[in-house]
């Protein structure tokens, strides 16, 4: 998350955050790799006629071009709409979901099915571990919110929420087993 936060602070969107682009170093540092599809935040007006979208060329960072890995794309990215750092937050949520469940948040048999899932379906929330702290589940839902206006806005805030202690973060079942409220 630090690398993503640093990129966002430099006004760079990764656009292809996925497990293959996240590595653990021998020193236990987490590195985000492959900024090959990254772009600087830019104000772009979405094109209204998607049939007039540009063909993928060396100028493939414009609105109207779909770039990235389908299973980790945000809905706006899958629709070739304007993207910003919240696109990476959605992808982070998809990666976190997969880490917690061992399953992709948006499965499908082919790219079209995956993109349809990203745009229209919710992840299988029942696949989350039963002992997952409720605040982590709530945060994950906010990261994977399809409506960008409701999605978490800053990866730095996500990092703080995941790494700073907030009272008793154990799941309700674990607290009950220990006789805690």
Describe the structure.
The chain is mainly alpha-helical. It has one domain (2-41, 60-177): Transferase(Phosphotransferase), domain 1, CATH 1.10.510. Helix content is 35%, strand content 6%. The protein has seven helices and four strands, in the order αββββαααααα. It has helices at 2-9, 75-78, 85-101, 111-120, 134-143, 155-163, 172-177; strands at 12-13, 22-24, 30-32, 39-40. The chain has a two-stranded antiparallel sheet. Strands 2-3 form a two-stranded antiparallel sheet. Strand 2 and strand 3 form a beta hairpin. Helix 3 crosses helix 5 (134-143). The longest helix is centred in the middle third of the chain and has 17 residues, at 85-101. The chain is globular and about 40 Å long. The protein starts with a helix and ends with a helix. Mean pLDDT is 78; it is low at 42-61.
């Amino acid at each position: 998350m630090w690398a993503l936060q640093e990129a966002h602070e430099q006004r760079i969107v990764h656009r292809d955050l996925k497990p293959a682009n996240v590595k653990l170093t021998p020193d236990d540092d987490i590195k985000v790799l492959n900024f090959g599809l990254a772009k600087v935040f830019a104000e772009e007006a979405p094109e209204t006629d998607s049939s007039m979208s540009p063909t993928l060329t060396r100028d493939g960072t414009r609105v109207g071009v779909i770039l990235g890995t389908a299973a980790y794309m945000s809905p706006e990215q899958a629709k070739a709409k304007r993207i910003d750092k919240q696109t990476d937050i959605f992808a982070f949520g998809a990666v976190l979901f997969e880490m917690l469940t061992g399953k992709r948040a948006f499965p499908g048999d082919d790219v079209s099915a995956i993109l349809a899932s990203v745009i229209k379906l919710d992840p299988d929330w029942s696949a989350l571990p039963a002992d997952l702290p409720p605040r982590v589940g709530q945060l994950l839902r906010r990261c994977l919110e399809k409506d960008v206006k409701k999605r978490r806005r800053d990866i730095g805030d996500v990092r703080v929420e995941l790494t700073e202690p907030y009272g008793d973060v154990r799941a309700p079942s674990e607290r009950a087993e220990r006789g805690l409220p």
